[in-house]
Amino acid sequence: MSSSARLAAIRAQLNPTSLFSSAASSQTQKTPTMSIPSTQKAVIIETTGGPEVLQFMTDYPVPTPQEGQLLVKNNIAGINYIDTYFRTGLYPSPKPEILGREGAGTVVALGPGPNPYNFKVGDRVAWLNTGGYAEYTAVPAAKTVKIPDGISDEEAIAGFLSGLTVLTLAKESYPVKKGEWVLLHAAAGGAGFLMTQVLKSIGAKVIGTAGGPEKVELVKSLGADVVIDYRSEEGKDWVKKVKEVTGGEGVSVVYDSVGKDTWEGSLEAVKRKGTIIWFGNASGPVPNIQLTRLSPKCVKIARPTLFGYIETREEFEFYVNELFKLLKSRQLKVKIHKVYPLEDAAQAQRDLEGRKTTGKLLLKP
Ligand code: NDP
Hints:
16 strands; binds NADPH dihydro-nicotinamide-adenine-dinucleotide phosphate; globular; single chain; 2 domains; Rossmann fold; seven-stranded mixed beta sheet; Quinone Oxidoreductase, Chain A, domain 1
């Protein structure tokens, strides 16, 4: 397909009206607007594949906010492992697509119709949806919140999707209790860095795994009780170490976002009547499992996603308020691995998949 035909297809899919059409302008008469261009910089994918399928474009259409949506000029976007699942096709999604599940920036226009959350042009907001690898994103107002003073856009996004995830994991997927042994894989990563802190604040005894001595030191610095370098010769048998540390019993809960490579070990490391929370596929998805494998130890398994816990506005606000309180008071610290320019999105994903990062990766549109 030629580049202009491709753009026309994208326009038709995304953008039935232009911002400057009559439908949009009747709305903009009621609400003050900022100057909005018709095209923007964005990173799109047209097919699944490796990081090379990410295409940086400078003439991508700016979307028009529809009813229930806001148009946000992104100041910063988050890069999450889930972006790679949509890129590879592990999680199916319509293409062409702009990846990126979260962003922070300024509301520049409101869609027509009711405005139940009282947003206005100029609000500084954080949002969860899709399309973050771009200068402008049309996002659902229901999944957008104002960022309180005292939290920067970068801090908000370093903690947003990842922080909301770990709060739901520790409160709902398995309500962690003080004094329990917990095993957390990839504890130095974007979610892991925050989860270690949340688990310690609850008073759990944390065994973290991480790849390499620097990551191990980082997780120790967060107060984890035991940290195992599961890529080292000594740490390869991390199940044995978990059993030793827990007096042969195993842990009450395993938080496993690595998936394929850790799955068997997680089943061994969990204690009788324990729980495994499988919440990601960094090494690939968990193979099919016979449920009868769970019976000898009466093990429970859950496979949660953040979006399932924050479907209603009430749920979303509950966790956001909790998160912003923790971020503002610095009880929850964020760690930004690097802020990548938008055109380096492919490199950022390479670094993430190459296990070269700690904490959160951000993208600057
Ligand atoms: P991370 O920053 O944690 O990066 C992934 C980490 O996984 C790597 O740094 C690496 O740490 C570890 N890892 C282990 N094996 C591999 C492998 N074969 N290839 C690549 N990495 C590997 O990413 P995120 O914080 O964005 O996400 C962490 C996990 O949480 C992901 O699995 C993600 O899908 C999941 N997640 C799930 C959510 C949900 O709603 N269910 C929401 C948010 C995140 P090391 O070198 O220490 O092994």
